[in-house]
Amino acid sequence: MGLTGTALAIDAGNSKTDVVLVATDGRVLGRARGGGFQPPVVGAARAVDVLAPLIAAARAQAGPGDDGPVGHLSAFLANADLPVEVTRLTAEIAARGWAKTVSVHNDTFALLRAGLPDRGEQSGVAVVCGAGINCVGLGHDGATARFPSLGRVSGDWGGGSFLADEALWHAARAEDGRGAPTALARALPAHFGLATMLELVEALHLHRIPDARRHELAPLLFDVAAGGDAVARSVVARQAEEIALMASVALQRLDLRSEPTPVILGGSVLAARHPLLHDHVVRLLAEHAPKAVPHVITAPPVLGAALAALDRTAPAPPQRAYERLREEWA
What's the DSSP call for residue 317? Predict the structure, then answer.
């Protein structure tokens, strides 16, 4: 059954959650933003509880009216990595009665949808490199490709948090003689007003510097790499190799390497378009998947969630509905 009336679109990441209420003509009727979505930390029920006030706030912006369930709820969620997690979260959200129908996907699919055309068969691959890293793909006849994305235990390498730790590791070893010299050993502590890596390690260990500030280290890594530091450049190159490898493997799994296929790049690390990283990714894709068509998406992933909700309209909405929706985040 096609979507009628309104739909809720949700993009819930580790650090923030966006909710929008969208009409079938592409108008955004309400929106709200809240904190992170972390079912592995607090459990599925408490994680879904975070959505309740945001949904209420988005619906309130639309003004008084029907307070019953909307036509559909399209949720793209961080930590919905395994089928069992998707099933559990779908059941938890459906039980709240917010919508007549519910669909749940990993949040990387929202990035992919945001980068795909609004008409015709939608096939392509998306790699997100933000706080973490993940890759998904859609092929012909609904085929999908994805990775567990559970960290090093599932073979992952990279993402902003990982890069911050790599920068700290190299800098600490450079200072005490176990590793190659690198400007990171000076740049990292200086960023926090400290003189040595030993002081920085102690401040982090004793939480005099909050763990939340570690995200500031990844941009420093790119700055030092841009200055020519060999160690920092090697880390950036390794990240580019991983991004290109994930995309190439997904294309291979979906049998898309022989045809022009979009490769959507997003997340805070890729959206920054650091030349060393971006140019290396594009070069590696050209070598290993020559028909891949990479492009960077800077629009928030909730756009993809909203577009996916609009896709459920029957009959198909006019092109102007998609255009109106995209204009909200242009």
Answer: P
| Structure tokens given for 132 | 């973490």
Per the structure block, which two tokens stand in for 321?
A: 């509905």
Q: What is the pLDDT of residues 193-228, one digit of tens each?
A: 999 999 999 999 999 999 999 999 999 999 999 999
Q: How far apart are CA 240 and CA 165, in angstroms?
A: 17
DSSP code of residue 7: E
All residue ranges of the chain with pLDDT < 50 are 1
Q: For residues 129 and 267, is the Cβ–Cβ distance under 8 A? A: yes
Residues 6+ apart with CB under 8 A from 212: none
pTM of the model: 0.92
Spatial neighbors of 15 by CB under 8 A, at least 6 apart, are: 35, 36, 131
At 278, list the tokens: 């971006």
* Dist CA 182 CA 105 (whole Å): 41
Structure tokens of 288? 């290993």
